[in-house]
Amino acid sequence: MKRKKMLKNERLRRGIYILPNIFTSLNLFCGFYAIISSINGKFVPAAVAIIIAGIFDALDGKIARATNTTSKFGIEYDSLADLISFGLAPGLMMYLWALQPLGRIGWLAAFLFMACGALRLARFNTQTGTISSDYFVGLPIPAGAGMNAVIVLFCHKIGMASGAHPFVLMIILYALSFLMVSSISYNSFKKPELFRKMNFNVLVGAILILIFIAAQPSVTLFLIGVLYVISGPFNVIRHFIRKDSVQSDEVGEMENRR
User: How far, in Å, CA of 166 to CA of 159, rounded?
Assistant: First the structure.
């Protein structure tokens, strides 16, 4: 009887381990679909697939933590899937969509984005458990990929189906690549206090954002993406301004004492 119970628990444990990896596989599937769509010239479906891949990527980690089924295999599989969905897929999409006229510098920009994404993932894996989970070091690769995706959707929304000027998009790709491998901190929104202390006004604001996303998804997601991407450099600038202000106050107090 005891042995049967142990076998049943072992099967259940194995079944639970499968669950987060299914979501990782769905993430990988969306990335592969985005690549196929880009090759076929269907860039809007490719962009949507990258965004959906981001949703699956967020879910697999939460499910693994909620069911206590995190594993080394799951972490490695998730990183490989992320490299395809958020490194190769958006890089290829941007190149075929707008950077192809630039020739070599166009595909090199796409390659740089993918390479920086791989470095970002490798650094994240080595820092797991050693730094606070309240923030990310560097722009997360799903955010960088999502920014590329919403740019495509936004341009199609405003009637620029062939994309903006290739050099502008290349500069954006370089900027996103730099932010991914930088040491700039980005909020991870994993603090429990953010949700425990949510007041009524914040809840209303969240509902309004959801309404705007439903009404104008391309525009709203583009604005959210831009705000998140610039939030890192903005916080760095604000930190230096505060630091200089504090130092100035300290110098002033020392001079007054003299």
Answer: 16
pLDDT at 254: 59
DSSP run (H or E) holding 254: helix 217-257
Nearest partner of 132 among 185, 79, 177, judged by Cα = 185
How far out from the chain centre does Cα 29 lie?
17
Give the domains, in start order, of the chain with CATH numbers. 2-257 (1.20.120.1760)
Cα separation, 54 vs 216, in Å, equals 19
Task: Determine the Cα–Cα distance for residues 117 and 178; give it in Å rounded to an integer.
Answer: 10
Structural contact between residues 79 and 125, judged by C-beta atoms closer than 8 angstroms: yes
pLDDT confidence bin for 255, thresholds 50/70/90: low
Q: Give the tens place of pLDDT for each residue, 57-67.
A: 998 888 887 77
pTM of the model: 0.84
Cα 153 to Cα 75, 81, 235: the distances in Å are 30, 23, 28
Tokens of 37: 């769509």
